[in-house]
Amino acid sequence: MTSKNQNVISVAAKFKRLAELCDSGFAVAIHIRFTRPSLLYRTYPTDWTDYYNEKSFVMVDPTVRWGLTHLGAIAWDALAADDTDGVLHAAREYGLLNGWTYATGPATSRSLGSMSRSSPFSDDQHAEVCSIIDDMHALTEGFDHLPTEVQDAFRAIG
């Protein structure tokens, strides 16, 4: 098995674990370049994702804005003042509670995840989620230069 195939298997396992930790969903954008992620994994409920897309919330989402300009983690509640378009309020109405965002990597190839859970995340869960996103970022380094079949395998996860 090549290391590229092993990386796909590793990312798939990390995706599965992240889904277990984030019982009400997550979105992870990996290697964002020129405002477009190389990979996007989402497990949020379909009704929320459809509404988010219909409203073009990605353009005004304070979690996305924060993640593109900062490294580290922040609770969604801390972004309330920047939520002028009501993205986070709408997310709560769709059951996305206890949310937070984590960003890693250089500005030229940033990865970020926004996660939610029905109950608050513990410190250990926060640390594990950060580690998972860091690992996914590292395991997909050079994505644009991978063979098409490997890129497709990464895209098929989830």
Summed up, what is this model?
The chain has 158 residues and is an alpha+beta fold.
How would you describe the overall organization of this protein?
This protein is α+β, with helices and mostly antiparallel strands and 158 residues long. It is built from 6 helices and 5 strands, in the order H-E-E-H-H-E-H-E-E-H-H. The protein has helices spanning 3-21, 46-54, 62-69, 87-93, 123-139, 148-155, and strands at 25-33, 36-42, 72-75, 100-104, 110-116. A 5-stranded antiparallel beta sheet has the order 2-1-5-4-3, with helices on both faces. Helix 1 (3-21) runs antiparallel to helix 5. The protein is globular, with a radius of gyration of 15 Å.
Helix content: 40-55%
Distance between the termini: 21 Å
The total count of strands amounts to 5
Global Rg: 15 Å
Contiguous low-pLDDT stretches (5 residues minimum) are none
SS strand fraction: 15-25%
Query: Order of SSEs, N→C?
Result: HEEHHEHEEHH
Question: What's the helix count?
Answer: 6
Class by SSE composition:
alpha+beta
Relevant terms:
alpha+beta; 5-stranded antiparallel sheet; 6 helices
Q: Could you outline the blueprint of secondary structure elements for this entry?
A:
Layout: H1 3-21, E1 25-33, E2 36-42, H2 46-54, H3 62-69, E3 72-75, H4 87-93, E4 100-104, E5 110-116, H5 123-139, H6 148-155
Helix pairs in contact: 1-5
